[in-house]
Amino acid sequence: MTGCRIRSLTWFGQLWEYETPKVIVVKNCHLGTIYRLLQLLIIVYFAWYVFVIQKGYQARETGPESAVITKVKGVSMSKAPRGTKKIWDVAEYVKPPEGGSIFTIITRTESTKLQTLGTCPESKSVIDALCVSSEDCKHGEMHVLGHGVQTGHCVSASHGSLKTCEIHAWCPLEDETVTSESLHEFVPSFTILIKNNIHFPQFGFSKSNIEDDNALKNCTYHPIRSPSCPIFTMDFIVKEAGINFTKIAYKGGIIGVIINWNCNLDLHPSKCRPQYSFRRLDLQNNISTGYNYRFAKYYNKNGREARTLIKVYGIRIDVIVHGQAGKFSLIPTIINLATALTSIGVGSVFCDWILLTFMNKNHMYSMRKYDQVKKKLPAL
Amino acid sequence: MTGCRIRSLTWFGQLWEYETPKVIVVKNCHLGTIYRLLQLLIIVYFAWYVFVIQKGYQARETGPESAVITKVKGVSMSKAPRGTKKIWDVAEYVKPPEGGSIFTIITRTESTKLQTLGTCPESKSVIDALCVSSEDCKHGEMHVLGHGVQTGHCVSASHGSLKTCEIHAWCPLEDETVTSESLHEFVPSFTILIKNNIHFPQFGFSKSNIEDDNALKNCTYHPIRSPSCPIFTMDFIVKEAGINFTKIAYKGGIIGVIINWNCNLDLHPSKCRPQYSFRRLDLQNNISTGYNYRFAKYYNKNGREARTLIKVYGIRIDVIVHGQAGKFSLIPTIINLATALTSIGVGSVFCDWILLTFMNKNHMYSMRKYDQVKKKLPAL
Amino acid sequence: MTGCRIRSLTWFGQLWEYETPKVIVVKNCHLGTIYRLLQLLIIVYFAWYVFVIQKGYQARETGPESAVITKVKGVSMSKAPRGTKKIWDVAEYVKPPEGGSIFTIITRTESTKLQTLGTCPESKSVIDALCVSSEDCKHGEMHVLGHGVQTGHCVSASHGSLKTCEIHAWCPLEDETVTSESLHEFVPSFTILIKNNIHFPQFGFSKSNIEDDNALKNCTYHPIRSPSCPIFTMDFIVKEAGINFTKIAYKGGIIGVIINWNCNLDLHPSKCRPQYSFRRLDLQNNISTGYNYRFAKYYNKNGREARTLIKVYGIRIDVIVHGQAGKFSLIPTIINLATALTSIGVGSVFCDWILLTFMNKNHMYSMRKYDQVKKKLPAL
After folding, report:
1. Residue A307 touches partner B, C-beta closer than 8 Å
2. Which of B25, B99, B371 lies closest to A293 in CB terms?
3. Which C residues, 139 through 198, put their C-beta within 8 Å of a C-beta on chain B?
4. Given this model, what pLDDT does residue B179 score?
5. How far is A264 from chain C (nearest CA, A)?
6. In Å, how far are A153, A167, B75, C177 from A145, measured between CA atoms?
7. Cα gap B374→C23, rounded to integer Å
8. Cβ(C126)–Cβ(C165) below 8 Å
9. In angstroms, rounded to a whole number, what is the distance separating the alpha carbons of residues A298 and A114?
10. How sure is the predictor about C19, in pLDDT bands with cuts at 50, 70 and 90?
11. Closest partner residue to B346 among C25, C98, C334, by Cβ?
């Protein structure tokens, strides 16, 4: 007879309007309890999501201005097949050398020494260049995959009986006399210092990833033991990115060092610290895996220009900086509060709909809900 | 007497509140129909815009992490005025050579060969450097647009009777002995392979613009015939950007290759494909059009440092990656639903306002609307 | 007796619903006035913030596509300790030379000339390399901070009685024979031309920071006198960034030139002009301040490769482009209007709460508010 008297807060707007709260006599207490719990769940979830997770009370800024300086340390040695040793220091293996956010650590080279401009037979690997007589070669023509411009002669290719079209090119060609050098032996012990300074212009907040200069001298980064040390060994980076070092050193590849700043400026600035993560960025498991490019070193050889063409395989490091900052602000707080309340209303309606549709004892519930309707309809 | 009985949904909130829906007897059926249609239009438009166009039911992420590798193929030949031919391969004409997202394909050079440090007369084009006697030249002074630091002497400029101040500089000066070489002949047939790998950290979704390695070998990009082939000919890029090739090859310029990823992650990942577009990025139709820069190659000439100064005109390619991904998420769905409903309410009010203001038969309509007002006012 | 009759607009929603506005007889006129003023304040503030400051009636786009071309002009001279003068022109001191958005102007170099691959004693500064006998040196070992790979011999270091491990390296080492050259004298008068072209794809709007080519020839940027001239002197940039030029020229550093486009596309395009600002981006006030890197120039010395190792200190300029554009659009106008109205409602409730809680004369006020409650409750 005496049920649980609860006031329906079905639509939050009502509370704000100071209108008559509907009073519902629910004979079955369980129904009322379930209803209350469901609503509470929705309210708590929204409040928690919008204000705790999404920090709805904060003004936000993403995409900070960022400056990255990198510095690699370490020396390696390569042994050419003929036994000559070459020492590779930073000026040799870091390309480009400027210490920016994208740079390559060379792990292997294929050098073609002392090329000069002249004529020589096209490489046999260029299928279109194979010829029988000079009629197969057109003067002045160029194959996109070839190495030079045809002279119109058909000449014997080196090492074999095949003939190819003669070309104007940097001779000898790369395929013929290439020398491979690998410096992967010492690369894992190389260290990379990454200095990163960010600035959020909206909040006028700047921060660097180096907090204590003295601690910098002998540290290496470790996610647990020294998470604020921005010196990374190549070994660590490659392992964290889940890569087999030998393979990437041979074929080359790109590793992203992602620096993520997630700053809550309502706390002390020292709490705003970057998170580092590492991920392979180039394609994997297919033919075109790897990273390589060619460049040349130029010499003056008896008054003529000569060059050493170097095909470089290396580990390219892309330092990618992400960031967002939030700080309390009245306006987003009110706007989010309003949006959250409206959202809760939509959620509550859903709640009601379930009760009205699926519950057994919904007769009494819905009757009360529409009490006013009946009273007003006759007035029309 | 028997009009069209329609329930007013003027304010959606009302429905959610399960309050008495106002019942309006509209004698003129047309009015009611127009009213309904107007509301329907607003509701449909909003629902369509917010949920279909804006995909309001999805959590969104923009600005993916992106790695770009580029590789140019092709060989060209230039003829210097003296008849010497020079072969330009990738190592020669791609600067910087690292295969990053911004690189230049050289189309023309102006070389000043074998400069050494010494003294020579300033160029006549530097107006401030013209002199009559040594009194016009100040030792140690430098003109911003000049080529060196003045020695304090006034000497005869080459080729003519004019005198200019002598300067410490890299001599001979660029203006005097420049050799122009153009390699534009074969540039249109060059191909650029663009590998692009993106990653949306929030969704943990990675994708590459290369889907099938085997298809890569002999394809070139065409928007209809092979839209997934990431190999572009220079000819195609220049034409798509709406540029006259001869002009850009002579003066240089910057072309943006814009890769746009617009991924709906509710669909199969294979549906997420990049769109390519091409646009000229440097200034057009004015004096400062074009793109050029100077660099030097160094030689050791009899123990002294010598250099070849090269002014390079080229087509700079900027690969710009844009992207956004969306995936269904409950929270934005509810929040957008609530916002949309509120917006629809505002729209409906606008609807009502039109009806109440401009319609002929609005007497009955507004009377019913304010029915309750009259009944309650006396209660005060 | 006759108070101020004012209609309560407590919840804006009510007005939209055309329901009975509550009529409150406030005996004390001051209370009503305060209440009205408070509400007006909230409404005005929100309307002003959302629609004037935040431009809630506009569709917005951030992160425009941007292309930057830079061009440095000027010549400087350095004096090596031995008295030899070196002229530095653009091809010498701008690295990389391509004229991109990040480049370094060299201000000081430390050169180690004519290094060749060979063996020499390790530097004394590498503490681990100090030795007494050859037993202290392990063949094939490498120190991360060392200059080469150990041969296993312990030899006398140059200049002193100390012994260090012999190493395979580029000899002589950097520490021994370095030549310092400083070109800071003329650097402040260098000029940097920054061409920046942006494009907002959503609005199809492009703009350049160069409006009038003719004005470009003889201008230098000044925030008041010539704010549209994109030619900056180094002196100006360094001063605006609040830096002591002598210090940054000696140790190196990074300066950000921030170009901010804030375009209201509802106005004439000529109103959309970039703002320039300047800020030091590298770390300050600590040991690791500064910016330097090493690169090498290669020579062919009697058939063997020789190099000049150059440690470069310089001012790195990072041109950072920010931008946002807004244009009127119906949808965000309606959505923001709805959100603003909801927010105003929340604000008004706060208003009511203050009145109901803290005001002396709130008896009458709250009685009226809950008038309907009493009348409806008995009906249950």
Report:
1. yes
2. B99
3. 186, 189-191, 195, 197
4. 83
5. 22
6. 19, 13, 8, 46
7. 12
8. no
9. 9
10. very low
11. C334
Among B300, B375, B379, beta carbon nearest to C371? B379
Q: Contact C88/C312 with Cβ under 8 angstroms?
A: no
Q: Where are the alpha helices (DSSP H) in chain B?
A: 12-17, 29-47, 90-93, 174-177, 234-240, 245-251, 330-358, 362-369, 371-376
Closest residue of chain C to B169, computed from CA coordinates: C87
B335 contact A CB<8A:
yes
Average pLDDT of the residues in C99-120? 90
* Maximum C-alpha span of chain B: 114
- Minimum Cα–Cα distance from B256: chain C residue: C67
User: What pLDDT score does A233 carry?
Assistant: 93
Give the residue among C213, C223, C196 at the shortest CA–CA distance from C319.
C196
ipTM given for this complex: 0.79
Question: Using one digit for the tens of pLDDT, what is the confidence trace for B286-321?
Answer: 666 789 999 888 877 777 888 889 999 999 999 999
Q: What is the pLDDT of residue A213?
A: 65
Interface of A with B in 187-246 (CB under 8 A): none
The yes-or-no verdict on residue C248 having pLDDT over 70 is: yes
What band does A23 get if pLDDT is binned at 50, 70 and 90? very low
Query: Which residues does chain C have within 8 Å of residue B281's beta carbon, measured at their own beta carbons?
Result: 65, 67, 197, 199
At residue C17 the predicted structure's pLDDT band, cuts being 50, 70 and 90, is very low
Place of tokens 């927010």: C343
> Does the pLDDT at position C135 exceed 90?
no
The mean pLDDT value for A31-56 works out to 73
**Does the pLDDT at position C365 exceed 60?**
no
φ, ψ of residue B148 in degrees (nearest 5): -170, -170
Q: Which chain C residues contact residue B256 at CB under 8 A?
A: 65, 67, 199
**Beta partners for residue C233, in sequence order:** C191
Token pair, residue B347, equals: 């729209």
Angstrom distance (rounded) from CA B323 to CA B64:
6
Exposed / middle / buried, residue A84 (Cβ in 10 Å: 0-12, 13-18, 19+): exposed
What is the least distance, in Å, from the CA of B304 to any CA of chain C? 11
Identify whether the C-beta of residue C323 lies closer than 8 Å to the C-beta of residue C198. yes
Q: What is the 3-state secondary structure (H, E, C) of B291-342?
A: CEEEEEEEEEECCEEEEEEEEEEEEEEEEEEEEEEEEECHHHHHHHHHHHHH
Residue of B nearest to C94 (CA): B295
Give the one of A96, A189, A298 whose C-beta lies nearest to C96's C-beta. A96
Cβ neighbours for A137, distance < 8 A, ≥ 6 positions apart: A129, A131, A150, A151, A152, A153, A154, A165, A166
Return the higher-pLDDT residue of C23 and C370: C370
> Which residue in C159, C188, C153 sits closest to C173, CA to CA?
C159
Q: How many CB atoms lie within 10 A of CB A132?
A: 10
| C337: nearest CB among B117, B149, B346 | B346
pLDDT tens-place string over residues A298-339: 877 777 888 889 999 999 999 999 888 999 987 778 777 777
What pLDDT is stored for residue A337 in this prediction? 76
Look up the pTM and report it. Answer: 0.82
| E-assigned strand segments in chain A | 4-7, 23-26, 58-62, 65-73, 76-79, 85-88, 94-95, 102-121, 149-156, 163-171, 179-182, 191-200, 205-208, 231-233, 253-264, 274-280, 292-301, 304-328
Residues across chain C: 380
Q: Does residue C9 register a pLDDT over 90? A: no
Q: How many CB atoms lie within 10 A of CB C378?
A: 6
Cβ separation of C85 and B320 shorter than 8 Å? no
Q: B334 and A352 in contact by Cβ < 8 A? A: no
Confirm if C380 and A368 have CB atoms less than 8 A apart.
yes
**C79-to-B291, C4, C176, C268 alpha-carbon distances in Å:** 33, 88, 20, 53
Which residue stretches of chain B have pLDDT < 70?
Answer: 1-36, 39, 80-83, 213-215, 284-288, 343-380
